[in-house]
Input
Amino acid sequence: MHTRSLAILRMLLFVSLGACFAAAPSHAQTVALRAGHLIDPGTGTVAANQIILITGKKITDVGPALAIPKEAVVIDLSSEWVMPGIMDAHTHVTQSVRYFRELDHNYLVESTGFRSLRGLHTAQTLLNAGITTVRDVGNDANFAAVDLRKAIDAGWFIGPTVQTAGKIIAPFGGQSRGIPPEIGPFWQFEYYDADSPEEIRHAVRENIFYGADLIKLVADNSDYHYSVDDVRAAVDEAHHAGRAVAVHVLGGEAADNVIAAGVDSIEHGFFLTDAQLTRMKEKGMFLSGTDFPIEHFEVGEIGNGELMGKAIVDRLRRAYAVGVKMAFGTDIVTDYRDENRADMTWDYLRVWRAAGVPPAEVLRCMTTNDAELFRIAKDRGAIAKGLYADIIAMPSNPLDDTESLRLVNFVMKNGAIVRKP
Ligand SMILES: [Zn+2]
Output
């Protein structure tokens, strides 16, 4: 197809998304953003009165006194705080339950196609709120998030950049518990059972073959857990294929094994000791802490909620004190009361505040740190010449109070305007 027709088609597609998504500029259109306050989360600094030039999908220049081309579309954000789009290191966009205990049931009653469509709905809700990149760490039926990523990358739908872990690799049983033997291993719809280094290598390869961008292990869901050699097999196989390894582990000996094996991120890690956090720091390993607000759970669902809430805040405070690299991630799988998934994401900021992590550090974890963990820092996570234009803005300063993120009223994704004030 002719380039011009493609550009028109793309524009029509964006228009057809409906009222909440504004039309994107045509492909080679230049857009100039007048940014009153431009935040660099990497350094925690703010530059006043900057101009950001975007042509196509990428940022072509940033500076205080740039000449704006005559044909450029100018967007006035002179009273706004402008920053790179937010990222989430641990999501499950195709999954939704009212309670955690419904997860097993969900594996049986929802098709992969239905999951992909929910993933699109959730991904667009997140993008509209300013979350421009998500890492989907499994529980997506038969690779539903791979199809979601492909559809967004093809330009059929506007959505965040999606990385997906495909099927989660775990010791026998996935993340199910207490299943009678006559029921059969239904969790294999969502998990690879892998119980030796050979089986783990095979599962990693199969995952990558079907489209996984990273590898996710669950190390300690049961009384048995992965050994150092088990986790090393996954790391060796994944790293040679250019993929990062994320591992669900809460603490104890399983966490020792995961740290020794040299994974890229520990997911959750609610009971990591200071010594374990220090070893992670020495190895440059990320903590993707999914530090959830206890209010998101029903009474009795996660044992003693009050104690768990205190443990999470305490671990986040200790992790910040130790100085381990942290990635912002949520692990939202529930749809809660009247909040959508974006509102739920901002609820996590309460926990970071309670742990005494300064706003500048929180914004860094949500942008540059996540981009480093996702291996996309040369493309995304900052506002600089040559990077993709994933840009958000809001009317108050998130460096004073991260609650400002709830007020995001400008979102640009790959140079396309998703919403504007
Ligand atoms: Zn999770």
Q: What stands out?
A: DSSP finds eleven helices and 17 strands in the chain. The chain has a mean pLDDT of 92.
